[in-house]
Amino acid sequence: MPSLFRRSGSSPGRVTVQDAAIRTGHAAGRGGDALLLDVREPHEWQAGHAPGAVHLPLTALAAGAGLPAAAQSRQPVVVICRSGNRSQRAAELLLARGVEAVDVIGGMQDWAGAGLPVVDAHGRDGTVA
């Protein structure tokens, strides 16, 4: 599979939710090689997020917060937000830190619209807030 990711110093790539699902292991029968990083605010995350995603709000990332332990491996990062705007900014910040990153076009709205799994903070069916 060709790389969807670009190294630091270039603009971040953008992927569809279908490509993101494949790269993060959310597509049926596919193992993923990338981490899904959700950069929405806590109330959005609690209402609904992709199972297995790591949460770090864009506000914290922009303020210089380090990546959570689960995101500190050298694996590529697929960044998602509600609609794709915040994730694009987060991917730029990650690229500047030397992290391979792409953002998801359409964000969690398109993720849920494609029928991909969404869970709430308690592991039950979630919604995109």
From TrEMBL:
Record-annotated membrane-spanning stretches: none
> InterPro entries from the xrefs?
GlpE_sulfurtransferase, Rhodanese-like_dom, Rhodanese-like_dom_sf
Gene3D superfamilies per record: Rhodanese-like domain (3.40.250.10)
- Specify the Rhodanese domain's residue ranges: 30-120
Name the domain of life: Bacteria
Matches recorded under Pfam families: Rhodanese
Question: Hey, what's the signal peptide range on this chain?
Answer: none
**PANTHER family assigned:** FAD-DEPENDENT OXIDOREDUCTASE, PYRIDINE NUCLEOTIDE-DISULPHIDE OXIDOREDUCTASE
The entry's protein name is Rhodanese domain-containing protein
Q: Which organism is it from?
A: Streptomyces spiralis
